[in-house]
Amino acid sequence: MSxxxxxxxxxxxxxxxxxxxxxxxxxxxxxxIRRELHRxxxxxxxxxxxxxxxxxxxxxxxxxxxxxxxxxxVVAELGGKRPGPVIALRADIDALPVQExxxxxxxxxxxxxxxxxxxxxxxxxxxxxxxxxxxREDELQGTVRxxxxxxxxxxxxxxxxxxxxxxxxxxxxxxxxNKPDLPVGTIGIKGGPxxxxxxxxxxxxxxKGSHAxxxxxxxxxxxxxxxxVTAVQSIVSRNVSALDGxxxxxxxxxxxxxWNVIPESAVLEGTIRTFDEVVRARVLERFEQVCxxxxxxxxxxxxxxxxxxxxxxxxxxxxxxxxxxxxxxxxIAPVVPVPSLAGEDFAVYQKQIPGLFVFFGTSGPEEWxxxxxxxxxxxxxxxADYFAALAERALEAVAEG
Length: 401
Ligand SMILES: [Zn+2]
Ligand SMILES: [Zn+2]
Known about the structure:
The longest helix has 22 residues, at 379-400. The chain is elongated and about 80 Å long. The chain starts with a helix and ends with a helix. The strands form 4 sheets. It has an 8-stranded mixed sheet, with helices on both faces. The protein is built from 11 helices and 16 strands. The chain has helices at 2-17, 24-39, 48-60, 119-135, 157-163, 221-231, 233-239, 277-297, 317-330, 346-350, 379-400, and strands spanning 64-66, 74-79, 86-92, 143-149, 170-179, 186-188, 192-195, 197-206, 210-211, 246-255, 261-262, 265-274, 301-307, 313-315, 333-335, 355-361. The chain has 401 residues and is of the alpha/beta class. Bound molecules: zinc ion (2 copies). One zinc ion binds at residues 117, 119, 152, 177.
C-alpha cells in the first residue's frame, strides 16, 4: 500500500513540474476522451467508430486530417509553417476480445470486447499531444505527423500504415505503451532491445492410427508429440546463451477423439520470443530440427508452419538519450525499464526508420490483457505533455543532424 502512496506523490510532483503547459482543462478533456474510447472498444481492423471519433476530436481542434488509403486508423499532420524535417508520433487504437471485469462506470458496453491493453490511453495521450502542439504550431521547426494505427493486437496495423505511404518522408518515429508496474510520474526509456520478436508455430505430427489395445500396429502421434513438447524445452537452455533472452512456449496440444482409438495425428501450437535476430534465426532453426527429428524417431513425421510475428522493438540510442533529457526537464522521472517479452508491431516502423518506444508509468492494478486491467488517468496529461515536448525537441535534433 505504501508503494501506492509513493506513486501518488510522484504523480502530483510530476504534474506540478509541467503545470504551465498542462492546463487542467486538458486533463479533463483527455479523461473524457479516454473514457469514451474505453466504453466503445473495437477489435483489430474493425475500428470504424473509433476512427470517426478520432477524426472528430482532431477536427474540433482544427487539426488537419491527412489523406492516406487506410480503411481504419487516422493520419493527421501539424506544423510545416517553418521548414524542417517530419517526425511521427504513433498511437495504436484497437481493443481485445476480453470480457471486462473492472466494474468501472465507463466500462466496455460491448460484451466480450475490452480495451484491456490500454490503447484507449495511448490514443487519448497522443490526441493530447496534438492539441498542445496545435497551440504552438507556428513555432514548430518542421512537421509532426500523427499515426493513429489500427490492428496492433494482430500485428497487421504498422504494415498497413507503411503500405498507405504515411511513413514516407518521416525521419524518426515515437510511440508508447502504458506500463502497469511503473508508477505514474515515471517513464521507462532505454536504447537497444525493449520488446521481443513474437513468432508463432503450428506443428502437425502425422502417424498411423489403430485400436488402442494394439499399439504395435500404430505410429502413435500422441507419444511423439509429448516427446516434442519436452525436447523443445532444451532449446532455450542448450542452444541460447544464458545472457540472451528467449522463450519457447507450447500453448495448445490437440489430438484424439475417444479413449480406445490411437489417432492419426496431433497438432501443437505456441510461440517463440527472442530479442536478437541471430538468436531468433537459431531458435527457429533448432525448433524445426527438433520437431522433425523427434517425430522421425517415433516413426511419425512433423511439419512446421510459422506464423511470422513482428521483429523485436529495438530503440535508437540517440533518440533514447533525447527522450531521457526531455523527461528530466518536465519532471517526469526516467528509469531504465526491464525489457518485455511481449511483442509490439511498432518494431515494423523501426525496420524502416529510427524509432523510440517508451513505457509510460500508469500504476495499473493488473497486467496487460487482464479483464481487470486499468490505468491511472493522472498519467494522461503527463503523456500528452511529454510527447508534445519530445516532438519539438526531436524536430530540432533531426534538423541539427
Ligand atoms: Zn496488447
Ligand atoms: Zn498493447
